[in-house]
Every structure is written in C-alpha cells, then in structure tokens.
C-alpha cells in the first residue's frame, strides 16, 4: 500500500485544503436554523468555496455505481437520510427538531479533503442529542486508532466496541482514502476485527466517517439514486474528518481551528 502514501508537498497542500474546508463547514453549520432550506445551504457552500478560489469536490463527481454525476457542491441529509442527500433537487425547509448532515469535499490546488457534521435544527429531543453525541465520539474513538502500523480493522473494531449496540452501525458505507481523488483505497468500515484489513503507513490520508442509526442498521437507496435513508424511517447521524497518518498521533486535517 506504499502507493497510497502522499508526498510532503501533497501533505502541505492537504493541510491548507483541510483548514479551508473546516472554515466553510463551520459557516454552513452556523447558518442552520428553522426556516433555512437545503438550497440555502447549497448556495452558501458554493459562495464560500468560490470566494477562496477552490472548488467543490463532489459537484459533478460520479461515484462507482452511480448513473449520473452528483448535482451539488454539498451533501445535505435530513433526519432519516443517512448520507448523499441532494440539497438542490426538491429542496427541503428545515424545521425545529430536525437534524441535518452536511458533508463536503473541497479541492484546493488539485487535492481533496472531506468532512461532515450533523447539526441540530433548534431544539432536538434527548434521544437525538445522544445519537449525535455518540456518533461524534465514535469518530474521535476511530481517529485514536490512526497510527502507522495499525490496520483499518483496528479503527472499525474500536468504533464498533464504543457504540456497543446502542445504535445501528451502517455497514454498506464507510471511510476511505482521500487526497488525489474523492474516494481512494483503502475502505474503512465502521465495524470489524482488530489486526485485519490494510496496514496504515505514515503519509497516508484517510477519511473516517461513522454513520449511526437511531433504530436498525438497515438502509435503502432513494429513487434519486444518491440519497441513502434508514429503512425504518428513524434518524441517522454522520460525522467525518480527513486524517493524516503519522508514526505518532494522527493529525486531523479538517479540525476546527
Ligand atoms: Mg464526506
Ligand atoms: Mg467521505
């Protein structure tokens, strides 16, 4: 997996890319309140990314298995939508008590970082607060396993152990290498067995992204060909960071400053 290691020049660009992404992501999250539409989030993302001279990595990107390019700058996934919600086709108006996942990729000088947060709209119920808190912590727990010599299975196992059956872990989707492309090897499941999978090497850049469902782990794909939803219609949460593997502690490239 030596071919997945980024050069020191790439890593410097990815660090700047991650900072730029974090500032856009935080501004989008801060804009969320009842009455805001998913189209408003898309419009703000386009404006903020363009202002910095960067581009939205997901716009016009066609992932494996999709039959058309993704039509928006940002994935906006509301309530029972897990990931890959489309903000500008049939836009939704956010209401008090909703939760909204914002997932974006930013391309800076040809290189890409990827990050997501799930944000409450106004006041949310205690059980949904817990869903958000546990998913956010699951990301931190996964990141703690990122170190040269560890394996991708160590990340998944740590997340699965931490969740401990409290919520449904989505199994069909997960983390991935990132940097030169939106999705690279290795894939990083949010469950698994320690000591299995791809060995992490210093200089690899990976996105870790647990998705937890309030109810069952089962998912369905909506008719738009992109939006993954929970099969039982209950809420789902998603947090993601792009992380640099080192010999020591991992470096979170999309950290809030
Ligand atoms: Mg993402
Ligand atoms: Mg990702």
In short:
This protein is α+β, with helices and mostly antiparallel strands. The protein contains four helices and 15 strands.
Q: Alpha-carbon distance between the termini?
A: 31 Å
The total count of helices amounts to 4
Outline the low-pLDDT stretches.
none
Small-molecule components bound: magnesium ion
Number of spatially distinct domains? 1
- What is the third-level CATH name, the topology? Creatine Amidinohydrolase
Q: Strand share of the residues? A: 15-25%
What radius of gyration results from the CA coordinates?
Answer: 17 Å
Total beta strands: 15
**Strand ordering within the main sheet:** 8-7-9-14-15
Main sheet: strands, sense, barrel: 5 strands, antiparallel
The CATH class designation is Alpha Beta
Average pLDDT reading: 97
Q: Can you lay out the helices and strands and say which pair or pack?
A:
Elements: H1 8-30, H2 38-51, E1 55-56, E2 74-78, E3 81-83, E4 99-108, E5 111-120, H3 126-143, H4 152-163, E6 168-169, E7 175-177, E8 184-188, E9 205-208, E10 211-213, E11 219-221, E12 228-230, E13 236-238, E14 241-244, E15 251-252
Antiparallel strand pairs: 1-4, 2-4, 3-12, 4-5, 6-10, 7-8, 7-9, 9-14, 10-13, 11-12, 14-15
Helix pairs in contact: 1-2, 3-4
Bound molecules: magnesium ion (MG) (2 copies).
């Amino acid at each position: 997996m030596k071919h997945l290691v980024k050069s020191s020049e790439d890593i410097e660009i990815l660090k700047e890319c991650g900072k730029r992404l974090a500032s856009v992501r935080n501004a989008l999250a801060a804009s969320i309140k009842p009455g805001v539409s998913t189209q408003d989030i898309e419009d703000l993302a386009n404006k903020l990314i363009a202002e910095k001279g960067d581009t939205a990595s997901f716009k016009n990107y066609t992932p494996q298995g999709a039959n058309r390019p993704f039509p928006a700058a940002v994935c906006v996934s509301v309530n029972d939508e897990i990931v890959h919600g489309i903000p500008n086709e049939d836009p939704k108006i956010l209401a008090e008590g909703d939760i909204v996942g914002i997932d974006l990729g930013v391309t800076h000088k040809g290189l890409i970082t990827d990050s997501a947060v799930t944000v409450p709209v106004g006041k949310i119920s205690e059980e949904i607060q817990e869903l958000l808190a546990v998913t956010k912590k699951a990301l931190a727990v996964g990141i703690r396993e990122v170190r040269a010599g560890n394996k991708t299975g160590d990340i998944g196992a740590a997340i699965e152990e931490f969740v401990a059956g409290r919520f449904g872990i989505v199994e069909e989707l997960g983390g991935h290498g990132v940097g030169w492309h939106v999705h690279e090897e290795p894939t990083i499941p949010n469950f698994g067995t320690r000591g299995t999978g791809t060995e992490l090497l210093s200089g690899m850049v990976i996105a870790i992204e647990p998705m937890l469902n309030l109810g069952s782990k089962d998912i369905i794909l909506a008719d738009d060909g992109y939006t993954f939803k929970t099969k039982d219609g209950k809420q789902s949460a998603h947090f993601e960071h792009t992380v640099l593997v080192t010999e020591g502690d991992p470096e979170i490239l999309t950290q809030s400053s």
